[in-house]
Amino acid sequence: MAIAPYASRSILPLALLILTGLLSAGFFAAAAPSDAAAHAAPSAPQPGAEADEQLPAVTAPAHEAAKRLAELVASSDLVTAQRGQIPVILVAPHGGLVRIPGVPDRKAGVTVTDTGTAELALLISQRVTAKLGGKPYLVVAQFVRKNADANRPAAEAFEADAARPHYEAFHAAARAAVDECRTRFGGAILIDVHGQARVPDAIVRGTRNGKTVSRLLERSGAEALTGPDSIPGRLAAAGYQILPVAEDGPAGEPAMGRETFFDGGFIVASYGSHNANGVDAIQLEFGKMRRDDPIKLARDVGDAIAAFVRRYGPQKSDAVGK
To answer: Of 37, 136, 164, 242, which is most buried with the most CB atoms under 10 A?
Structure first.
C-alpha cells in the first residue's frame, strides 16, 4: 500500500532527528559487545596511538563479571558505570549533583560536595584511554552527597530507605569492576577521586599508610608509591605539591611519608589489596586545581596513571582462575 504524501513528509524529519540524537549520544560507538566480541582480545590500536601491550582475552568468569557490571547499574540508578579494557578503575563518590527523589538531607556526617570531581573522573578516563589505547573502568555517583555518601559504610551512608538502591548500585558496580580486573588481569590500580580545601594547593594521597596498596609494595617496593614512575611521583614532577612528602616517614620505615589526614576512606579500605578479594587502591584528594584548570589536571593525572601502568601494572600471570 502506498504511503500518503503527508505521512512521508512527517516521518522522514522525525527519523533524521532520532538518528542525529543517537549519533550525538555516541549510541552506535558505545553499543554493548556481543558475547563473541566480549571473549575476543581488544583490537590493536591505530598506528601512532600511544598504547600499551595488547591486553589478554576476557575469560569466561570475567565475561560473567562484565554482564553483572552492565546489569547492576539500571537506568533508574543515579550511578554512571563504564566497563573497561585495561586494569585501571576510576571511582568518584562525592561529585554528584542530582537529588534522590523523596530523600531529605542527611542530618549526620559530612555532606559537602567535592565540586568538579565527577567531571574530573570522566576527563581522566578520556586521557587514560588516549594514552593506553583502552578504556578504564569507571564508577561515578551522580547522587548528591547530602542524600547518600558512597564513601561510608551503609549504616552511616544514608538515612532514608529510598537512597539505598543508589548507594548499593555504586558499590555493586565497583565490586564487579574489581572482580573482573582480578580475573582478567590479575589486579588493577583503583583511583578514588576526591576534592579537598584543607590544603588548597596540594594533592593528598591516601592509602591507610600503605595498607591499601600492600600487594604493590610487596611486588615493587616503596618506589611504586613515591618513585618517579609512581602516580604521586609523576604528579610531583609535573609541578604539583604532593602530601605526604616522601621524606616525612618515621625512621626505620620506607620513605613513603606518613598519611596523617585524608589517609583513605571506606572505598579504598573496602577494595584495597590488603583484602583477599581486593586490588591496589589509592585515594587522591585534589585541591583547588580541580576547579582552576580541570583539563590540565586531568591530562596530568591521566599521563601519571599511564606511566604507572606501564611500569607497575599487574601481570596476566597473577590472574585469578588462570
So the answer is: 136
As a whole number of Å, the end-to-end CA separation of the chain is 59
Q: What is the spatial distance between Cα 228 and Cα 235, in angstroms, rounded to a whole number? A: 9
* Inter-CA distances, 17 with 4, 12, 24, Å: 21, 9, 11
| φ/ψ of residue 172, rounded to 5 | -65, -40
State pLDDT tens for residues 157-169: 999 999 999 999 9
Residue 285 DSSP SS3: strand
Q: What backbone torsions phi and psi does residue 230 show, to the nearest 5 degrees?
A: -75, 165
Length of the chain: 322
Residue 293 DSSP symbol: -
Q: Determine how β-strand 189-195 pairs with β-strand 280-286.
A: parallel
Q: Is the pTM of this model over 0.85?
A: no
- A 10 A CB-CB count for 111 gives 15
Q: Which of 305, 177, 296 is nearest to 240 (CA)?
A: 296
Name the CATH code of domain 56-317 (choices 3.40.630.40, 1.10.8.60, 2.60.40.2380, 3.30.1700.10). 3.40.630.40
pLDDT single digits (tens) 22-75: 334 333 333 333 333 333 333 444 433 444 444 444 444 555 555 666 665 677
Cα distance between residue 224 and residue 46, in whole Å: 30
Cell of 115: 565540586
Integer Cα distance of 260 and 249 in angstroms: 11
Residue 95 has phi, psi (to 5 degrees) of: -100, 0
The residue extents of the domains of the chain are: 56-317
In 212-256, at which residue ranges do the beta strands (DSSP E only) sit? 241-243
